[in-house]
C-alpha cells in the first residue's frame, strides 16, 4: 500500500511539473530525473511483489512445534496472499514502470 500511494503521489507531482511548464524554467537534466524516478518506482514495486510472494510461500511453514502444530497462515490469509501476489495490478504496474524505465533509458543521453 505504501508503494502504491507514494508512487501515485510522486507521479502526479511529476506530471504536474511537466504540464505546468516548469520544466523549461528549471535547469536540470529531466531525462536523468525521469530515468531515476522510474527506476526507483520499479525497484519498489518489484520488491513489494517479491515480499508478497515470500509471505505466500510460508503457508505450509509450521510454527511452535512443541505445542499444537498449526500453519503460519490460515487458509483465508493464504488465499488473500495468493490473490495479492498474482493480481493483475502487481504485474501490470511492474510491467508499466519497467517499460517506462526502458523508454527513459532509450531517451537518456548524457
From TrEMBL:
<keyword id="KW-1133">Transmembrane helix</keyword>
<dbReference type="GO" id="GO:0016020">
    <property type="term" value="C:membrane"/>
</dbReference>
<feature type="domain" description="MARVEL">
    <location>
        <begin position="1"/>
        <end position="109"/>
    </location>
</feature>
<keyword id="KW-0472">Membrane</keyword>
<dbReference type="GO" id="GO:0019911">
    <property type="term" value="F:structural constituent of myelin sheath"/>
</dbReference>
<feature type="transmembrane region" description="Helical">
    <location>
        <begin position="78"/>
        <end position="105"/>
    </location>
</feature>
<dbReference type="GO" id="GO:0042552">
    <property type="term" value="P:myelination"/>
</dbReference>
<dbReference type="Pfam" id="PF01284">
    <property type="entry name" value="MARVEL"/>
</dbReference>
<dbReference type="InterPro" id="IPR008253">
    <property type="entry name" value="Marvel"/>
</dbReference>
<feature type="transmembrane region" description="Helical">
    <location>
        <begin position="35"/>
        <end position="58"/>
    </location>
</feature>
<protein>
    <recommendedName>
        <fullName>MARVEL domain-containing protein</fullName>
    </recommendedName>
</protein>
<dbReference type="InterPro" id="IPR050578">
    <property type="entry name" value="MARVEL-CKLF_proteins"/>
</dbReference>
<feature type="transmembrane region" description="Helical">
    <location>
        <begin position="6"/>
        <end position="23"/>
    </location>
</feature>
<keyword id="KW-0812">Transmembrane</keyword>
